[in-house]
Amino acid sequence: MGRGRRRLLWALVGVLLVSGGLGGIVVWQNTYALREERVVLWHDGHRLEGVLALPPAGDGPFGLVVFVHGDGPVDATHDTFYRPLWESFAWAGYASLSFSKPGVAGSEGDWLEQSMDDRAAETLAAVAWARSRPGIDGRRIGLWGASQAGWVLPKAAAKDRRLQFVIAVSPAVNWLRQGRYNLLTELRREGADRRRIDKALRRRETTLRLLRQQASYETYRAAVGDTGDVTPGRWRFIAKNYTADAVADLRAMRNTPVLLVLAGHDVNVDVTETEAVYREILPASTLTVEHYPDATHSLVDHNTERSPWRLTATAVFAPRKLYAAGFLDSQARFLRRTGPGEGAP
């Protein structure tokens, strides 16, 4: 779900609460069977603020799911949208650990200065911190990540072979092919004609040429004119990461159990390519693929995401139903199959 859509959603939430006087129902629906603890991780000289979400009862030791965010300035709870996932994992006997990105919600640093290698190192620092934590079973730690995390998860799993599993939601394989797919899909969805598509592709080729030349932001802006949402910081981030490709890291972590989750209405990622690459590289014995034909890139129901009012009402009154039907339960089942969680409530 895009950042603009989330801002609109929460603005509409306020309208609903003020006009409807339904605060009690909202509080009940947004109360989760979790024990949340604010935690701190020091990494690369920066303080990262996070949340450790434990099952509602028991001392453990619990298995653990470490969250790896997608693109953008994401806080530890992803504007609360992670909590239904945390709750589903808690029922499987697993805790969840998530840190706000550098520069977001109290975390120090700047996420736009990170490469995918930097993000993988940060993820492994979180895993190492968790292994020393009382109540966490260091033998039963895995990763969950969405979208851009598709380039981080394999890197981390390739370097730490003790990780028990990886859950990859809507991951891409190759940064450049993903960008082209997204550009063309968005244009076609808008009904763009051939002339507009050709113009967009020429602009894209200009951008790629400048990236290969390591051009400055000023040179980029002079060449393309309107840069849209590409700020100087975003340009540096793209320059660090535009060559990202997951294939080599997937090969290096090929014995790690993987749940690959793909959506039928994904305009960001070519899910056909992603599935083909994962099936080619990873052994069938370690790979589980699940399709959600009616879901978007964020695994929200397609019809729900298309309607701002329906999206808002669902987020307020039934937030667990934001996700595609069966999505939450299937991930919990995957964890139980991979390794039963001790201390499950």
Question: Overview of this structure, please?
Answer:
The protein has 2 domains: 31-174 and 244-307 and 316-338, Alpha/Beta hydrolase fold, catalytic domain (Rossmann fold, 3-Layer(aba) Sandwich); 178-239, no CATH class. The longest helix has 19 residues, at 194-212. The chain has an 8-stranded mixed β-sheet, with helices on both faces. It has 345 residues and is an alpha/beta fold. Helix content is 44%, strand content 19%. The model is unreliable at 22-28 and 341-345 (pLDDT under 50). Helix 6 runs antiparallel to helix 7 and helix 7 (194-212) packs antiparallel against helix 8. It has 14 helices and 8 strands.
Topology, please?
Blueprint (H helix, E strand, L loop, with lengths): L2 H18 L2 H7 L5 E9 L2 E9 L7 E7 L14 H9 L2 E6 L16 H16 L4 E11 L6 H7 L6 E4 L5 H15 L4 H19 L4 H8 L7 H10 L5 H6 L5 E8 L5 H11 L5 E10 L5 H5 L1 H10 L9 H12 L7
Parallel strand pairs: 3-4, 3-5, 5-6, 6-7, 7-8
Antiparallel strand pairs: 1-2, 2-4
Helix pairs in contact: 1-13, 3-14, 6-7, 7-8
Q: From the alpha-carbon coordinates, what is the Rg to the nearest angstrom?
A: 20 Å
Number of helices: 14
Sheet with the most strands, sense and barrel status: 8 strands, mixed
Elements, N to C (H/E): HHEEEHEHEHEHHHHHEHEHHH
Question: Could you say what the CATH topology of the largest domain is called?
Answer: Rossmann fold
- Total beta strands: 8
- Relative strand content: 15-25%
What CATH architecture label of the largest domain applies? 3-Layer(aba) Sandwich
CATH superfamily of the largest domain: Alpha/Beta hydrolase fold, catalytic domain
Residue stretches low in confidence (pLDDT < 50, at least 5 long) are 22-28, 341-345
Strand order of the largest sheet: 1-2-4-3-5-6-7-8
Number of domains: 2
In one word, what is the shape?
Answer: globular
Mean pLDDT: 91
Helix content: 40-55%
Broad CATH class of the largest domain: Alpha Beta
CA-CA gap between termini = 31 Å
